[in-house]
Fold these 2 entries.
Entry 1:
Amino acid sequence: MNEHSRVLERDELEIAETLRSPDVDLRLPPVLPREPYPIEPLTPDARQQTRAVGQRATRSDARLHGLGQTKYIDDLSFPGMLYARIKRAGIASARIKRIDTSAAEAMPGVMAVLTGKEIPTNSFGPTFQDQPVLADPIVRHAGDGVAAVAAVTEQIANEALAKIVVEYEPLPAVLDPVAAMREDSPKVHAPNSNIYATKVVRKGDIEKGFAESDRIFEARFSTQMIEHVSLEPHAAIADWDANGRLTIWATIGRITLARADMARTLKLPMSRIRIIGTIVGGNFGGKNEISQEPALALLSKKTGRPVKGVFTRGEEFTATTTRHPIIMDYKTGVSNKGRILARQIRLVLDGGAYCSWSATTLGKACILSPGPYKIDNVVAEAFVVYTNKTMTGAMRGFGAPQVCFAYESQMDDIAKALGIDPLEIRLLNAFDEGSSSPTGQVLHSVVIKESLRKAADRFGWEPRS
Amino acid sequence: MTDVTMIVNGQVRGASVPPETTLLQLLRDNFNLTGAKLGCDVGDCGACTVIVDGQAVNSCLMLAGQAEGRQILTIEGLASREWLHPIQTAFENSGALQCGFCGPGVLLSAKALLDENLNPSTQEIRDALSGNLCRCTGYTKMIEAVQDAARLLREESRTQLTHARTEATAP
Amino acid sequence: MKRRGRGIACMWYPIGFTVDANASAATVKVNEDGTATVLTGTVETGQGSLTVLGQIAAEALGIATDDVHVVSADTDTTPMDTGAIASRTTYVTGNAIWLAAEAAKAILFETAAPMLGVKVSQLEARDRKIQVKSFPQRNVSIGEVAHRSQVVLGQPAIGSASWNPPTVAMDPETGQGKPFATYVYATQIAEVDVDDETGEVEILRIAAAHDCGTAINPMLVEGQVEGGISMGVGMALQEEMLFDANGRHINPNLTNYIMPTSLDMPEIAVDIVQGYDPTGPFGAKGVGEPTAVPTAAAILNAIHDAVGVRVTSLPATAEKVLTAIKAKRAAEVKQIPA
């Protein structure tokens, strides 16, 4: 609520002449009753069936969505609520020499300022706790937060950010993941190596497989960094009450993990933390961990008032996780008939500045990289490396869309070179019920060939080679 | 401070706000109409779409002062307390909204289209929704829902015409 | 001129993830009128998971989707859950809810057996009633049983359970093991027009056939597939975060970061492949993420089919496609003997 504005009472207003326009009645909501659409009772049949599974039941939240009544974080407010904003480093690699918050703190309407030093345990992360809530003293990517402000309006909070003075000592940055793998590369998390996780899958005898192959195909594929672009930005409200109990309303897909991370960063017992996940306005993997929540909590603790923080669209890009760019080298040996006999894969994932869900992405990308095919001889190696860029993390598919692009592109190249129809070569190599995966897992409920045939039927696929 | 008066969802509403206040801020913060969403604040995403004098507009790009004296329809005004608008019915039944955040803007863009054209082609619907970004649905079910809503509205206008004719010819 | 091409891509995808334990817990409470309340720690992030989880509880209890209310996402009231991640909700949380509903149902059966004069093993829950198998006319309403359990017998019909997918840790040297409980499979086929003078790609239609085991709610499965395809379209042709030489992001806005609008989406035909996974709730697996996996591959193969160029780095922007077309033409000219 803008504190300088007031809503006029109805009797203070005059209906001005300008308000009359010839099509007023046309534009107003209909006054004629619409017979078929009563709010009550409208429970479509599918929701009333007692064999519930398999029904096209309408969503339980569809009504509220359509009426605009679903409450997302930014639609909630509490008495006395403050607005938080986070100052972003804007520099990819640096050491913070000094932060001067005094001018910001002196501004009317600014209630509290927070820096990384004040956070009890200034690190979090689902696999490695390598990410600070607010950078202190090392900045590892331009979207790192360096200070947070709580003010009575968002505008004042924004103005206060400009008054925070941060002095940086620039450090060498590494942006290319392959360069980051070199021994002499600048270290994002010095003194540790930039390669922060690896995965390997070996099956059969790769050399023998290549030796037995009639043809060998080699190619390098690469993908880009992608943002989730949930329509609702990351948002949260923290309320640290006088009993020392913290309530967080957050757009987060994992409240159990969020509570554990909050307990760790704030050194609080879990019983004193309540996380309420509101309806999340889009996740796709981007809201699987905490971000600003510990800072909001501490600002609330400092001020004794609820504090809301909503990321700008710019912060959504620069300060939240993204999809891993992957450099993918594929070497595949096939028989003249199109059977894949051996496949060697090397993946380099650009992990950005922090681990987030990279270890999980690495594992999935590596395990899935040979494709849904019966291949007796496989070596897949994957590395994820730190760079001074926005951190990469979970995003719909965890590395699978990237490796699928590589293995399916190469599959078509092989089909073309051998004169085999692309559908045929896939049916020739695809898993069957009971096939052994690259990790030696016996697969069950395998329906890939059914899916190939069904899509081909629907598309109207005519074989040609 | 600027005094603004406008008709919002059929009611005269007014406020005194700083001149830089956007229509979106006015609706959300002053009138507590939170259906219109802030998604990007620069007119790229369409989550803040409302209807001003029959046109779907990004309310984050319009100053409150520019809405002076105009007719505003927000998502809160689309249904009455007793009746859902056919667009809402169609979106609900076809599962056209997922996270729902883009929904109010999408529904109002669809309303602006259907007010002008009760029989839009698929391409006309795509054009009308092209300013409303959605990351969940791929727009497919939304387009179907707008078609369903158009059909419901056509049936309704036929019924009303018949009704009017019957009344006119009644003794 | 515009050249048409088609491309196919298939994929496999694991349900749940591999690094840590991946457990969910759930509580199902049967109310005294036979409706039910489910407590789950997962979060609705737009997929419709709460609707699907309600359908699973309803199916287990023999009641309707509308009879179930799902309470979610509050650490004070709902049990632990690994969360809305990794296409795990229907499979893992769904199994937990199924087991919890079965536990609540077992209490109802114990109460109902003496009411109907039969053994517990002879009972089933159907159509909001507990009835004797093969003698559905001998029945008592679930509400009556739930009320009696609670008020007379002092044993409320509340069930709790947790479920963690059975996996075998991977050998660190060879990667051999059973990292995931199950997998889903899918194929997408795209048809595109490529303008060989501008490099512009228009996606005309996509046929998608996805396996998710039992489709608990086919309408929501279709919604996932259509949405996943739109993400794949962006990945294939449009989206890319760009950085300057100093590591600053240069397109952090939706003006310069291009993602699909309603004008970019092709016609989509979704087929659900008949499947049943005995380890999932009522045979279900998952569908959220896999929908976004094969799209870009299918589109890039269609571009290759249309103009004969292999774009190996995403996104395949018009510039990139045109550059590849020009390079191909130049190579062809060179090959013509003098």
Note: Chain A has three domains: 82-170, 178-227+321-459, 235-318.
Entry 2:
Amino acid sequence: MIDPVISHPLGDFIREIIPIPEISFLINALISIIAICAVAIGTAPILIYMERKICAHIQCRLGPMRLGFHGTLQTIADVMKLLFKEVYAPKGADKFLFYLAPMISLTAPFLALTMIPFDHNLQVANLSVGIPFIIAVNGFGILGILIGGWASNNKYSLLGSLRSGAQMISYEISFALVLLFVVMVSGSANLMDITQSQSGTILDWWIFKIPVLGFIAFIMFFISSTAELNRAPFDIAEAEQELTGGYHTEYNGTAFAMFYLAEYINLVTTSSLATTCFLGGFYPPLIGIESIDTLLLKVPGFIWFAGKVFFMISAYMVVRWTFVRPRVDQLMDFEWKFLLPANLLLLALGATYIAIIG
Amino acid sequence: MSLRRLPPGFREENIDLDTEEFFVNMGPQHPSTHGALRLALRLDGETIIEVVPHFGYIHRGIEKQAESMSYLQYIALSDRQDYLTAIQNNWGVCLALEKGLGIGVPERGEYIRVMLAELGRIASHLVFYACFGGDLGGQTALLFGFKEREMIHDILDEVTGSRLTTNFFRPGGSVHDVPDTFIPRVTSFLKHLEKTMVDYERFLSTNIIVLERTKGIGILSKEDAIAYGCSGPVLRASGVSYDVRKNDPYGIYSQLDFNVPVTYNGDTYDRYVVRIAEIHESIKILRQCIKQFPEGPYRGQEKASIRLKPGSYYSATETAKGLYATYVVAVSGDKPYRIHTRGPSFANLAALNTMVQGHKISDLVSILATLDPVIPEIDR
């Protein structure tokens, strides 16, 4: 199922010096996995800094300013603090599950990230079932939160994890259906194929290619992924003002850092998915004027990709600091009574559109 | 059927062993109980069956302390009750003392009192706006409210020398006169506040999630509000037009033109709307005071030691939270025999259990925020 021959200079080189295909494949896989983990973990502090600054400026304040230039080293100091803290489980907690939960939470977004094509030759695994794989892995991540809340032996944690269980499982349906829409219109569940179906000008991106429907699908993806990410305004699982910290109330030190890291890597994964499915992946936003387009094409694809991902992340952050949190039952109502029917309607309209025009 | 031990305060006869109720202690260390307040919750899933507030964690025995202090020293203690309306508490105490001394306040002194009290009211309501937004999950509103409140504190700092615990009024007037910069600063602040209030209201008042979260939630009926002795915005949101400034005017409020905002649903949204409307009324009062601000003495007769005529004296004032009343019993000497305070937050908190029943924990947080309790005033 996994296509081992992704043409890449480094991969070609390893295949050349180690002629046994199984071993060269393993080495290749290891290198790419380490690389993707390194990039993702390296991005997280930048995102945390970015979030603090965006939040601060929305709230008319400066944010971190003391450590390094404009507080750039603040995140590193925080990471150090978290790493050197003693990790302990509360009395009566199920120790094994308590420490397992953050690991599960952190694994899921990494697995999803392996499917994302960052550039023409920059993808860890080119699965033909890329989209279903991502949906499956996303569901796996919920387990971490559920287990963590259950094992903490704390009532707030339990309430938080129950809330998140209900919320994430509900919104997963919308999340999957919107992705299904993209699969339907592009004719493939392979993320590389989806990206390549958007080559051409900016109007070939799925957000614009199908008039109105594409944009609505993008908005729906944005809403359901915000809920999937457990971010405000849909952060009812953490709900600081209500549940003090929700599922991670009892976590500290490295275990808490892993939950925190998972949140931001999830953000990267979901933004990458949005970029791949709606915003043309690694293709530059060509506008059809040749002189400008040749300039845009000179910029490498992964830079375009990173730019779009950061645009998406900024959107998530601005939304987070602008809205208040709905109540848990209102959130469920919204999903089951509005978003899900709307999604099904969108799917039907999309199918009609393809049957008639596409 | 075996008897299960319930946490203190819950009614035993409500036990039904077949349901899976459970108890959660919200506080005393919880981000949204606004201080050291403990709410024991009886939950069915996330739905609240009963709430029992436990308080007294920061009880300092202020009323007992007052008996071994001179009257002037007690004014400083009134700051330490409701610290958000400190300047209005000062006024309440001074009113009672002035009745005992049989003295009045010169006109300029009255204007200084009204202006500072209304500034304090705006500051307190801004803190409410901040906490309300914050408790709904909008951290941005939290910072917005506190930003303008800082400006009021800067003005209070310049006038009284202190930002929070002002200790500024004395029987017969105030400690000293306001500086020349006071009127221009208030004028420019009001101009700024009116502009920013438009933004702040747009941020919460018309936001669809806020409306969904607050309309029809935590309804306090008119009868209940009166029965529990609620006062201030909590009472007025339930449709009772009672404001001490209008119904039993003190100071120069009878000469000023202002309205008492009243709403009739008694839900969380109404309590929010009433407070926002009161900010605008306070701005109106301040504008009038600036226009009419007189020259002259700021304080009447000064005395070395204050000795009240034997008897009992009562004063009622309207602070931002509601009815703040002081009852002084004087026997002899320069110390009170007994001082009792009727605080608005204490009475308003009593209505909590009625309001939250059947709602979710999320709503408890927002309902508690609209009661706007200040714990040092509940505990005293």
Note: The first strand of chain B starts at residue 22 and ends at 26.
